[in-house]
DNA sequence: TTGGTCACG
DNA sequence: ACGTACGTGACCAAT
């Protein structure tokens, strides 16, 4: 702690920031009595972060006393027209003050003055008395107080982040000194405080003028010397406004405050009062923190320090591992567990907690036997990560039967996290810190000292065990036990094996493509520069927009937040207007393939000549998987150039096959099943081409023979639209018809498939009643926005309520197929490996002599994954590369 | 870190 | 009347 360091906080401003930081969680943060607490809670977090960063010896928090101040006397409309502070925030202010009192911190407000003036006055007093002064506010006005010993911190978006304004920083940002800033404001006015400055003068002009003249007084002495301009006229006309604005902008540094520096001393924390306060507001996290900080009086057993034993090769022999159940955690630094550095492990048995940084201990007796013993049930967090980490150490884990991460994802994937600490916090267990707290993030990520590390890991294994009953109970309440036990947990092992196997990629094929595409790209580049008349960065949408819409004067058809849109959608319509457009589209397409797929893929081929993706099993809102590092679920297939990439994906044996099998229209079949629509079910049961059948229906034809390719295309778009929760606008935009036509198609569709409409209505109604949408396997997606007042937000939730059960059930189905498939491969003792899943498609690496059996069993297993009211159909293809597997 | 763009189902 | 399709990940430029 610095000797004399005074922290002055702008209470209203910080509370305001705190309130809006968690505004979206407004309804989730309430006390047992129903009081909103989001601002109180965040205020405390921000306050803690200030203490940590600034280490003050003295503190005072200043508040505004009321609406009327000496400034409103000068200027009636001061802060007029400003939106009223929401009641939800106002009602929290007294509690913030109460909390500060318990914390031993003085709050102060003064009739007729704003918090700014209190801070201005105290900062002056502090400065004169030899204090280092730190001012914290969300309001940039305060930056005028900055001086050699006064630093003004302006809160940024993140809870703990602040921008430090020293006189030097002021100069960089505004070009003026803190005192000159007042004069700058005099010229600019302040729209949020509702007072005008000089007409047409903004920050730029104001800054330039003040840099030139130093103050408005001096400026107006010389104003007649300025050469004739609109600016000069405005300055002269608005002279009174400027001088008034200066008065309003100036913080009173000699206000008649009734507190002095002696009042800023920090008193001791009123522990009992604070605890009672936290309990009243339901702040479990802060309560838990208190128990640790104050030692003794530990009310929450969560916060006990755990005793652990550090395992070494010397004491390992004494380790008793005769339990039938234990918790285990293997720590690796970084997301990519295929490559991540091992840090340490922790183990919790009935005897106690054991930790060690020596992961080699896992490779030997007795830990290896323990981990490989199927009869000892292991509780973990992130089964797949654990399994693969152990696999790298030569351990084939068995008996892992509980995964806290998977369970929490199934229970509620709304506030999804892969961090054990964060998940534990969701279940009111604050005994374990988050990994970011312990290891840091980004460049600063590092392993801490042994004591910190071991305590963290000990807390982790304890939390895994401790929360297990609650999570299992909740799964049961949700009727998700079989989704968890029979789908997600077994699937995690299947995915682990797929990831470990990886897929063979031929770098030479990619390098050939790199050369070809490279030549095409340089040729296109030159041609484009020639047409444009200059060289520029083709990959910059901003620069490209400038060339197209300003230099070449093409019509800008669409805008984005930041400028002109240059997307395919726009460029496609400009094709006829300039030769350059086609070339740009062509360049874009090839450059995408080159950077993302050719170069990107080459970068991630590992030493074994394979790519090992990671499937994220606990990420998506619908239950699908996602694939990263590399993403193998978006390898090009639609364009021929892109499809070339697939030639580099080959079987592990040269004469082997890549075998691919995909479901035909799973989502529509799921829709036919869940909606019970008779016409659609009949179409699938009879084996019609569903899009042609739809075309026949919506165009009122007598037979599918009359369906033209155009009609079929339209019908296909309508079928897709239905799955997404259709709107006439969306459909019209997608297939380039009018909204009216689109509406007619949709109406006609609902007439022909009446069950679909009632399904959609029912889906929305049920989401409203239950608060979530659900798949056939009881996977949930919570939809709080279904009750939103905002039309757009609510509509989005409604479409989601329709789409999620469809997309999610399809995900359930292929997951079941994958588990059955892996089982079958093992049963039949085949060498074939399942290597990829692309949402409705499974891909296998097949030795030559297994092709025949695979052709038979894969479609069979996929088609029989689940029994629906309509048949599931899966079509297979194979070849000597992924490209040829069609 | 964010936004634009584009690859996939 | 509201403005709009559902679900993802990677790359690049600009902040």
TrEMBL record:
Domain DNA-directed DNA polymerase family A palm as annotated: residue spans: 642-850
Keyword Hydrolase included in the entry's annotation: yes
Catalyzed reactions per annotation: DNA(n) + a 2'-deoxyribonucleoside 5'-triphosphate = DNA(n+1) + diphosphate
E.C. designation(s): 2.7.7.7
One of the GO biological process terms: double-strand break repair
Pfam families registered for this protein in UniProt: 5_3_exonuc, 5_3_exonuc_N, DNA_pol_A, DNA_polI_exo1
Database matches in InterPro entries: 3'-5'_exonuclease_dom, 5-3_exonucl_a-hlix_arch_N, 5-3_exonuclease, 5-3_exonuclease_C_sf, DNA-dir_DNA_pol_A_CS, DNA-dir_DNA_pol_A_palm_dom, DNA/RNA_pol_sf, DNA_polI_exonuclease
Presence of keyword Disulfide bond: no
Domain 3'-5' exonuclease: from-to ranges: 303-476
Keywords from the UniProt entry: DNA damage, DNA repair, DNA replication, DNA-binding, DNA-directed DNA polymerase, Exonuclease, Hydrolase, Nuclease, Nucleotidyltransferase, Transferase
GO terms assigned for molecular function: 3'-5' exonuclease activity; 5'-3' exonuclease activity; DNA binding; DNA-directed DNA polymerase activity
Chain ranges of the 5'-3' exonuclease domain: 4-267
Region forming the signal peptide: none
NCBIfam families per the UniProt record, alphabetical: pola, PRK05755.1
Family per record: Belongs to the DNA polymerase type-A family.
Assembly and interaction partners: Single-chain monomer with multiple functions.
Protein name, entry field: DNA polymerase I
Species this protein is from: Lactobacillus pasteurii DSM 23907 = CRBIP 24.76
């Amino acid at each position: 702690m610095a000797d004399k360091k005074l922290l002055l906080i702008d209470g209203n401003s910080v509370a305001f920031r705190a309130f809006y930081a968690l505004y979206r969680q407004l309804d989730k943060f309430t006390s047992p009595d129903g009081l909103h607490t989001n601002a109180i809670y965040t205020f405390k977090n921000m306050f803690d972060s200030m203490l940590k960063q600034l280490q003050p010896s003295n503190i005072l928090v200043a508040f505004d006393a009321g609406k009327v101040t000496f400034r409103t006397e000068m200027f009636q409309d001061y802060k007029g027209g400003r939106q009223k502070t929401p009641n939800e925030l106002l009602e929290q202010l007294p509690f913030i003050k109460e909390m500060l009192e318990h914390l031993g911190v003085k709050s102060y407000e003064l009739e007729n003055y704003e918090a700014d003036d209190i801070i201005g006055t105290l900062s002056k007093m502090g400065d004169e008395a030899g204090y280092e002064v730190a001012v914290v506010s969300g309001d940039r006005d305060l930056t005028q107080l900055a001086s050699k010993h006064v630093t003004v911190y302006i809160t940024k978006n993140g809870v703990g982040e602040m921008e430090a304004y020293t006189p030097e920083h002021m100069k960089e940002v505004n070009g003026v000194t803190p005192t000159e800033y007042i004069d700058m404001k005099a010229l600019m006015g302040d729209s949020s405080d509702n007072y005008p400055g000089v007409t047409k003068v903004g920050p730029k002009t104001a800054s330039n003028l003040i840099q030139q003249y130093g103050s408005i007084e001096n400026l107006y002495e010389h104003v007649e010397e300025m050469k004739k301009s609109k600016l000069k006229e405005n300055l002269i006309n608005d002279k009174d406004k400027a001088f008034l604005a200066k008065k309003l902008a100036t913080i009173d540094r000699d206000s008649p405050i009734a507190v002095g520096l002696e009042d800023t001393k920090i008193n001791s924390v009123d522990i009992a009062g604070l605890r009672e306060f936290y309990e009243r507001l339901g702040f479990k996290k802060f309560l838990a923190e208190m128990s640790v900080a104050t030692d003794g009086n530990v009310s929450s057993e969560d916060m006990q320090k755990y005793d652990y034993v550090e395992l070494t090769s010397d004491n390992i022999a004494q380790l008793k591992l005769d339990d039938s159940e234990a918790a285990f955690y293997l720590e690796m630094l970084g997301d990519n567990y295929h490559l991540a550095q091992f840090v340490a492990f922790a183990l919790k048995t009935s005897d106690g907690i054991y930790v060690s940084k020596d992961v080699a201990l896992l490779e030997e007796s007795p830990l290896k036997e323990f981990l490989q013993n199927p009869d000892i049930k292991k509780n973990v967090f992130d089964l797949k990560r654990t399994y693969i980490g152990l696999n790298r150490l030569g351990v084939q884990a068995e008996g892992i039967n509980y995964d806290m991460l998977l369970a929490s994802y199934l229970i509620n994937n709304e506030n999804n996290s892969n961090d054990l600490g964060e998940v534990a916090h969701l279940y009111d267990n604050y005994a374990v810190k988050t990994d970011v707290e312990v290891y840091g993030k980004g460049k600063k990520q590092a392993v801490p000292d042994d004591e910190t590390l071991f305590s963290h890991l000990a807390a982790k294994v304890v939390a895994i065990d401790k929360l297990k009953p609650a999570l299992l109970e909740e799964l049961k309440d949700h009727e998700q036990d079989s989704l968890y036990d029979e789908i997600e947990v077994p699937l995690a092992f299947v995915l682990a094996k797929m990831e470990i196997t990886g897929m063979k990629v031929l770098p030479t094929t990619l390098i050939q493509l790199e050369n070809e595409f490279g030549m095409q790209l340089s040729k296109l580049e030159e041609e484009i520069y020639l047409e444009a008349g200059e060289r520029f960065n083709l990959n910059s949408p901003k620069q490209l927009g400038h060339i197209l819409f300003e230099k070449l004067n093409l019509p800008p058809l669409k805008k984005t937040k930041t400028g002109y849109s240059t997307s395919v959608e726009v460029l496609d319509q400009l094709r006829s207007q300039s030769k350059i457009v086609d070339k740009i589209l062509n360049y874009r397409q090839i450059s995408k393939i080159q950077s993302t797929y050719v170069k990107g893929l080459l970068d991630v081929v590992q030493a074994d000549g394979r790519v090992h993706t990671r499937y994220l099993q606990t990420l998506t809102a619908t239950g699908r998987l996602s694939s990263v590092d590399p993403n193998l679920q978006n390898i090009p297939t639609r364009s021929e150039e892109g499809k070339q990439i697939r030639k580099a994906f080959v079987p592990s044996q040269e004469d082997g096959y890549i075998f691919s099998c995909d479901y035909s229209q799973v989502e529509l079949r799921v829709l036919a099943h869940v909606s019970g629509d008779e016409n659609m079910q009949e179409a699938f049961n009879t084996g019609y081409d569903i899009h042609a059948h739809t075309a026949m229906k919506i165009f009122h034809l007598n037979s599918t023979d009359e369906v033209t390719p155009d009609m079929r295309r339209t019908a296909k778009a309508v079928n897709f639209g239905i799955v997404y929760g259709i709107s006439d606008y969306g459909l019209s935009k997608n297939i380039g018809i009018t909204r009216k036509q689109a509406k007619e198609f949709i109406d006609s569709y609902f007439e022909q498939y009446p069950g679909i409409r009632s399904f959609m209505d029912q889906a929305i109604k049920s989401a409203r009643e239950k608060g979530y949408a659900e798949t056939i396997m009881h996977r949930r997606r919570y939809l709080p926005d279904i009750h939103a007042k905002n039309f757009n937000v609510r509509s989005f939730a409604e479409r989601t309520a329709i789409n999620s059960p469809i997309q999610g059930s399809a995900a359930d189905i292929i997951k079941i197929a994958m588990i059955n498939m892996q089982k079958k491969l093992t049963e039949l003792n085949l060498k074939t490996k399942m290597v990829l899943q692309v949402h409705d498609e499974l891909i296998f690496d097949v030795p030559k002599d297994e092709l025949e059996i695979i052709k038979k069993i894969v479609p069979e297993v996929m088609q029989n994954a689940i029994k629906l009211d309509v048949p599931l159909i899966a079509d297979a293809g194979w070849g000597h590369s992924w490209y040829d597997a069609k």
